[in-house]
Amino acid sequence: MEFIDLKTQYLKYQQDIDARMKAVLDHGQFIMGPEIEEMESKLADFVGVKHCISVSSGTHSLEIALRALNIGPGDEVITVPFSWISSAEVIPLVGAKPVFVDVEGDSFNMNPELLESAITENTKAIMPVSLFGQMPNLEAIQAIADKYEIPVIEDAAQSFGASRNGVKSCGASLIGSTSFFPAKPLGCYGDGGALFTDDDDLATAMKAIRTHGGVRRHHHTLVGTNGRFDTLQAAVILAKLPHFEDELSARATAGERYDELLREFCKVPEISKGNTHVYAQYTLRANSEMRNNIVEDLKKEGIPVAVYYPTCFHEQPVFEYLGYQWGDFPESEKASREVFSLPMHPFLTEEEQQLIADKLTFVLDKNN
Predict the structure, then answer these.
(1) How many CB atoms lie within 10 A of CB 345?
(2) What is the Cα–Cα distance from 251 to 278, expressed in whole angstroms?
(3) Disulfide check for 83: which of 63, 87, 308, 361 has CB 3.0–4.6 Å away?
(4) What 3-state class would DSSP assign to 214?
(5) Tens of pLDDT along 288-323?
(6) Planar angle of CA 270, 84, 306, nearest 5 degrees
(7) What pLDDT does 33 receive?
(8) What is d(CA 136, CA 154) in angstroms, rounded to the nearest whole number?
């Protein structure tokens, strides 16, 4: 059994993927070939914004967004302490200071009620994370950001395809950032990511920064980087994109089926009002003393499981200098000790989910 079944996906779309990749091999424009612009146009239309700027990774996309906003030394950027390290590491990469705000216990996303108290005169951006596949309360976050005239960057690495009150993830804030890492809801076959915005000037700046600081060759207006997306990877995205809506529907069905099978035995994921959920991970919780036993027992039963994420940012040695202590972010800390994720992908069968549920209930009973 696969935790995320990319093999089945490839076999289903093999003809389209192979044809798209062969077209790149035939024309030989491996860097910034025509598939890049085609993909960016289609993704911008999908999200409902004017601009999509593809980049080399989801991590790089966040860094480029911060650079485009001229964030640097002396500035602060607010994010959450419970996510993949990229959400925080990009902030000191541009010379700024990370400031953390705790998450909500049910959604695992930024708690807007705690946001305003973290804002200072040095706050130059707010970067909520759309964790596990659903968006945070961006209306509340944006209202606070507007009050202080602070830009919002949605870290949507796990939520591409999700929506909130009819607005697509990556299209609900000044800048949206996502990842095309293979395991993501829309993934390529390597690293990749994209930025989304309706702001023409920001789009120009982000395009320049991804290509060594210039939008035309040998003319550099900004300090940039090599952040380009490979044409072959764009070909993979273009082949998968026509199937993406069907996959989102299949993910929703799989999530609902898990809920039905498991809600009697454990707390199933809660979808926030107005949200759709793309289930980048189907994540459950168990008592911290039981979680590791459950994970190990499931693996022994042949069920692949994963823990996203066992350690909060403020516990990491790299962020000791920030001065945070255990207990500063109780919901994030509790989540990090309790969460575990089950296999989730669009090709899960009812039989596989029944088997997973049976094994999990057996393991839960054993550890109670």
Answers:
(1) 20
(2) 6
(3) 87
(4) coil
(5) 889 999 999 999 999 999 999 999 999 999 999 999
(6) 65
(7) 98
(8) 9
Q: Three-class SS of residue 339?
A: strand
Query: Residue type at 9?
Result: Q
Question: If you search the block for the tokens 């809660």, which residue do you land on?
Answer: 270
Helix and strand tally (H, E) in the chain?
11, 11
What pLDDT does 288 receive? 81
Neighbours of 86 (CB within 10 A): 21
Q: Is 368 exposed, middle or buried (0-12, 13-18, 19+ CB in 10 A)?
A: exposed
Q: Which residues touch 246 (CB under 8 Å, ≥6 apart)?
A: 346
Tokens standing for residue 235: 């070909």
For the chain, the distance separating the N- and C-terminal CA atoms, rounded to the nearest angstrom, is 26
Q: Give the residues across from 76 on adjacent strands.
A: 97, 123
Question: Could you tell me the sign of the dihedral formed by the alpha carbons of 70, 76, 78, 80, in that order?
Answer: positive
For 130, which DSSP code?
A: -
Residue type, 248: L
Q: What distance in Å separates the CA atoms of residue 63 and residue 127, rounded to the nearest whole number? A: 11
The domains of the chain, with CATH numbers, are 6-242 (3.40.640.10), 244-367 (3.90.1150.10)
Token pair for 227: 């952040």
List the alpha helices (DSSP H) in the chain.
6-27, 34-47, 58-68, 86-93, 138-148, 200-210, 231-240, 244-262, 288-300, 330-338, 350-367
